[in-house]
Structures are given as structure tokens and as C-alpha cells.
């Protein structure tokens, strides 16, 4: 037996997790068909005459044409190659040159949802209907006039999506990656939800105050973080979206969104500058994680120490979305919380290295406060 650690990474089965996936902002979808390359295949999204979002399998089963090149008629979409038309239920409802529509002329309609200013699609390898108790929760602050709109970016990542989800239990990365000291860190797993609660020091996002974050995964791919920080002595409340959708077993699209509570008493210009600046700082912090996801290797047998977070528990929780409904264990029906007490220092090299863009963003905020 070798004394050296050997990384093990089994081939990933071509099966995608059951749950709701964010497709970005709802306003980005209109009557023009949009091609979506997800779940190892192609889908097509569009709005019909009733303005409801419709998502269907993206290839016409007649001769394989891309339906995103087609035309919306009513709530149906007509293939541009041979003019077969597909209804919102996936059933072919017109073939101009046929006396009879083949019984097999049916493609998959994907369940959709619009909530919190975002569009969602539901995936289940067994083709079950969405689980009512696992809907993305309503965010009351969206569109209430007291918070900014979502500022969202799309980032393609070339690795398996478990690498992203592992972050939920990875306490030890806060210091080396973000120059943040996590003083309190715990994870709670309950049914389809995984929660990370963290309190710590983050000069970038909380100044001299304590940064408090509560991040919750609702299912395998949609996470909302409630964050309380500070900028130039001004308390800041924000919400973060982290949501991924697999393009293949070895790649995914990552959507990162930020919305900030507006600052009463400030002029519109100063408020806009504060929101813009805090969004930029939050993006900078998140992009530090992204740099590692682009390059790290999947590890099934991580060598962990007693100061690491509950990585194995997280992966056990996450695996429930990859098995048939009948095989989901009842382990997580009872809420389970795991705390990590170890202190993770910030490496000297990270303390000495300037954080990209932070100085210019800080100057912008200061100028807004002085105006």
C-alpha cells in the first residue's frame, strides 16, 4: 500500500439531479425562441400568446431540426425545416402536408416557473411532476421598490457541478481565498434544504463590523444567501443568488446574482453608486471561488482534517437528488446541524496581496458618501 494519497474520481453517470433550475431573468424570454443547451441535450424556450413561459425538447423528432430556429404560433412552435408544429403540451398539432399526424409525434414539455424575477425549469430523470413542497420560496423583497433589481452574471464552468455545491461545507477556504475569518460556521441539512450560517470578519464586505451570511440551497441547484455587511460605515443588506444548470456531466452554467437594499435618505445618484459599488465587491469575492472551479479536480476521497466542514454529510445530502424518488433515504427528514469550531487564519500571502478592483470600488463609494 502506498503511503501517498491517491485521488480517486469515478466516472460520472449521465444522470442529472432532480429539481428546479434557474434559467436567468424572466424578462430575458419573449416570443422569440431561445435555444438552451442543458442536461446533455437541447431545449427551446419561448412565450406563447398567453405570455406564459414554455420549454420543450429542442429537436424536432421528424428529422432532427433545431426548433429554436422555428416560429411561435399561438402557444405552439412551428419547425422551420418541414413546418411541423408542436403545442405547449409537446404534442404535434399540425403537419401542413399530412392527412394524419403520427401517434409518436410528441416531444417532452418541461415544467416551468416564474418567481422572484427569474425563470425556472424542472428536471426529473423519471419525468415525475414537480414536488410541491420543493418550490423555490417567494422572495417578498423582489420588486417592492425598496431593493435593487437583480444584477446577474452568467459564467460557464468546465467541471462537474458537485465542485460548486461542496463550497457549502468548506469553512477552511474563507481565509485563503477571500481573506475572511470565519468566527462561527455551521451547516444544517433538512429534507431538500441545506443551510450554511457563517459569522466572520470581512474587511471587503463588512468593514470593521461582523459579516453575517445565511446561505440556503433549495434543492440541488438554487441557492439564496441573506447577507448583512457594511461599506464605509453604512450597514448594507443584500441577497445573493448562486444557481447552476448542467450543460453536461463535466460542465455547467453558473448564474450569480446580487440585489441590495436601497439606502433611504441618499440622493438617487448616491444610492445608485452605493448599490453598484457593493455589487462589484460581492462579485469580486465570488469570482475568487470561480477561479478555483475552473482548475480544480473532482475528488471522491478527499483527505480531510478535524477542522474541515462536514463535506461527507453534504455529499450524502446532495446525492438524494440523483436517485429515484422511491430510493430517497429518510435520513434528512429530521433536521441535522453540524458546527465547526476550528479557527482558520488568513495566510500572510493573502493579506499582502491586493484584492482586484477593491481600491477603485472603495474610492467610488467614498465619493458617493462625500457628494
What does this structure look like?
- This protein is an alpha+beta fold and 371 residues long.
- The chain has two domains: 19-134, Rieske Iron-sulfur Protein (3-layer Sandwich); 151-370, Naphthalene 1,2-dioxygenase Alpha Subunit, Chain A, domain 1.
- The chain has seven helices and 19 strands.
- It has helices at residues 162-165, 174-178, 203-206, 268-293, 311-319, 348-352, 358-370, and strands at residues 19-25, 34-36, 43-47, 53-57, 71-73, 76-78, 85-86, 92-94, 109-110, 112-115, 118-123, 151-157, 181-190, 193-201, 210-218, 222-231, 234-248, 251-260, 336-340.
- Strands 12-18-17-16-15-14-13-19 form an eight-stranded antiparallel beta sheet. A four-stranded antiparallel beta sheet has the order 2-3-4-9, with no helix packed on it.
- The termini are far apart.
Amino acid at each position: 500500500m502506498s503511503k501517498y494519497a491517491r485521488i480517486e474520481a469515478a466516472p460520472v453517470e449521465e444522470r442529472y439531479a432532480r429539481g428546479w433550475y434557474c434559467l436567468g431573468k424572466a424578462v430575458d424570454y419573449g416570443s422569440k425562441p431561445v435555444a438552451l443547451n442543458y442536461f446533455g441535450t437541447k431545449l427551446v424556450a419561448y412565450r406563447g400568446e398567453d405570455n406564459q413561459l414554455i420549454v420543450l425538447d429542442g429537436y424536432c423528432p421528424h428529422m432532427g431540426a433545431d426548433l429554436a430556429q422555428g416560429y411561435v404560433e399561438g402557444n405552439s412552435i412551428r419547425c422551420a425545416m418541414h413546418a411541423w408544429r408542436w403545442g405547449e403540451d409537446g404534442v404535434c398539432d399540425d403537419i401542413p402536408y399530412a392527412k394524419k399526424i403520427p401517434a409518436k409525434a410528441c416531444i417532452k414539455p418541461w415544467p416551468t416557473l416564474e418567481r422572484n424575477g427569474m425563470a425556472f425549469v424542472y428536471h426529473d430523470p423519471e419525468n415525475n411532476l414537480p414536488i410541491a413542497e420543493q418550490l423555490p420560496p417567494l422572495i417578498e423583497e423582489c420588486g417592492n421598490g425598496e431593493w435593487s433589481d437583480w444584477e446577474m452574471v452568467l459564467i460557464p464552468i468546465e467541471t462537474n457541478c458537485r465542485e460548486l455545491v461542496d463550497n457549502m461545507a468548506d469553512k477552511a477556504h474563507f481565509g485563503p481565498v477571500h481573506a475572511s475569518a470565519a468566527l462561527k460556521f455551521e451547516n444544517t441539512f433538512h429534507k431538500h434544504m441545506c443551510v450554511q450560517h457563517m459569522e466572520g470578519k470581512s474587511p471587503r464586505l463588512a468593514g470593521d463590523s461582523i459579516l453575517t451570511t445565511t446561505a440556503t440551497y433549495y434543492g440541488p441547484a438554487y441557492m439564496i444567501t441573506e447577507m448583512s455587511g457594511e461599506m464605509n460605515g453604512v450597514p448594507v443588506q443584500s441577497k445573493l443568488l448562486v444557481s447552476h444548470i448542467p450543460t453536461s456531466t463535466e460542465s455547467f452554467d453558473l448564474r450569480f446574482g446580487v440585489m441590495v437594499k436601497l439606502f433611504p435618505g441618499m440622493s438617487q445618484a448616491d444610492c445608485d453608486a452605493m448599490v453598484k459599488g457593493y455589487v462589484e465587491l460581492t462579485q469580486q469575492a465570488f469570482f475568487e471561488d470561480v477561479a478555483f472551479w475552473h482548475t480544480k479536480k473532482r475528488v471522491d476521497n478527499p483527505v480531510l482534517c478535524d477542522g474541515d466542514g462536514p463535506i461527507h454529510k453534504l455529499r450524502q445530502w446532495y446525492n438524494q437528488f440523483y436517485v429515484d424518488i422511491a430510493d430517497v433515504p429518510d435520513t434528512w427528514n429530521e433536521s441535522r446541524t453540524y458546527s465547526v469550531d476550528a479557527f482558520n487564519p488568513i495566510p500572510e500571502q493573502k493579506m499582502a496581496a491586493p484584492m482586484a478592483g477593491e481600491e477603485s470600488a472603495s474610492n467610488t463609494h467614498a465619493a458617493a458618501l462625500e457628494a
